[in-house]
Amino acid sequence: MSQRLTRTPAHTPARIVHLGLGAFFRAHGALVIARAAAAADENWGITGVSLRSPDTRDRLKPQGWAYTAVELGPDGSRAQVVEILRDVLVAPEAPAAVLEAMAAPEVAVISLTVTEKGYCHEPATGRLDRSHPDIRHDLAHPLPRSAPGYLVRALALRRARGLGPVTVLCCDNLPENGRVVRDVVTELAALIDPALADWIAETVAFPLSMVDRIVPATTAADIARLEAATGIHDAAPVLHEPFLQWVIEDRFAGPRPRVEAAGAQLVADVTPFEHMKLRMLNGTHSALAYLGYLSGHETIADTMADPVFAAFVQGLWRDEIIPVLDAPPGVDLGAYAQALASRYANPAIRHRTWQIAMDGSQKLPQRILSTIAEARAAGHPVPGLTLAVAAWLRYVSGKDEAGEAIDVRDPLAPELAALWRDYDPAATVDGFLQLTQVVPPALAGDAGFRRDLTAALTRLVQQGARASAREVTHG
């Protein structure tokens, strides 16, 4: 009979508060911090915060906040129990307790993985979306709902109490993520208290970071397999690939865990690493997700097993992305592309195309549209990336190639569905180009891009995703 995973929680206070305690952070940042704390024999416990659901808290609490991280390699798996969490709070249940945790004197770092949409900003401009319902709420109430609202109100408490400086560390896939969070937070703070905004600008550090690890969603079957293998029931394990990368700008306001002892990189300039990852990994991941889903492939590994899409993604890297990308120091972009291909093809990682396809309106500006804009400005053709945008537009129509319904998860889902009211590719593209919160101005007014995207979407509708990808690859 299996035993439940359990431990007696440590009573040392947390020095990190993390907003958005999803599977990714537990399989990435939390692991690095746990290893760094052990290597330096320091306390860097984490209080996790769920901004929405109590599910993660309810699964972890009976286990004393411990969980299993399972590495899935092509040749087998390896599991380790992670014991870095000190507590998990659920923001909608106890917003005041979350603010108090963030304003605790011993806290030196507040980190976040709340996904692109969690910053309540306009992806095309990086500005705070003042019309967002959570932002409107947070302007009117001292107990917030949004991640920016929690940061502003917690920093206000820290300022009022005369506490030392703190670092806000974004771990989401946003270009110049630290600057985005800084700008959103200071803009919101200025609307509440201009003096607070000035204090934040002078006192709080917002280093940039780049994170990379494939973390598929955990299923009931995964939990059952882990229990069968170990004899221990863990209600909240996380699964991940062997690869891990965390590049952080070396700009902290105060104490920090020695993450470099656990494999993270501290650098003066994150931007080249960030551009490489967002465009070469996240951009192609999204392209494969939309085209693969439309073609009936459940996972990225399944999509890569299809020779049409394996060739298509190689063409994206070789012909469209690498030519307009500056390599980080010491990095061979061709070798990086081949490493990505191997990671995508790992059959042990069942990363669902539907999971990656979520929130495309928040992801495409930095993952794909920015590359298209730069390439077009340089006179460089990008038919594959244009097809990827067309595939996203077809996906958000809510119907796949067989006419079956697609469960579209996107904060702009109603607006995107409306683009397909007449099921006319040209009209759909025109409507898309008017979405100023998604489309950068350089593309919105580009008649050539409009022409190419309309042709790609028309071809996609007429002959399907697989045939369209083959045509782009082979001409």
Description:
The chain is of the alpha/beta class. The chain folds into 2 domains: 3-268, Rossmann fold, CATH 3.40.50; 271-474, N-(1-d-carboxylethyl)-l-norvaline Dehydrogenase, domain 2. Helices cover 48% and strands 12% of the residues. It contains 21 helices and 13 strands. The chain has helices at residues 23-27, 29-40, 55-60, 95-102, 133-140, 147-160, 177-192, 194-203, 220-230, 271-294, 300-304, 307-321, 333-345, 353-357, 360-377, 383-395, 413-418, 425-433, 441-444, 447-463, 465-474, and strands at residues 3-4, 16-19, 46-50, 67-73, 76-82, 85-90, 109-112, 167-170, 209-212, 232-233, 238-240, 245-249, 265-267. The strands form 4 sheets. The protein has a 5-stranded parallel sheet with strand order 6-3-2-7-8. It has a 3-stranded mixed sheet with strand order 5-4-11. α10 (271-294) packs across α15 (360-377) and α12 (307-321) runs antiparallel to α13 (333-345). The longest helix is centred in the middle third of the chain and has 24 residues, at 271-294. The chain is globular, with a radius of gyration of 22 Å. The chain starts with a strand and ends with a helix. Pfam families: Mannitol_dh (PF01232), Mannitol_dh_C (PF08125). One of its GO terms (molecular function) is oxidoreductase activity, acting on the CH-OH group of donors, NAD or NADP as acceptor. InterPro entries: 6-PGluconate_DH-like_C_sf (IPR008927), 6PGD_dom2 (IPR013328), Mannitol_DH (IPR000669), Mannitol_DH/Oxidoreductase (IPR050988), Mannitol_DH_C (IPR013118), Mannitol_DH_CS (IPR023027), Mannitol_DH_N (IPR013131), NAD(P)-bd_dom_sf (IPR036291). This is Fructuronate reductase. It comes from Paracoccus sanguinis.
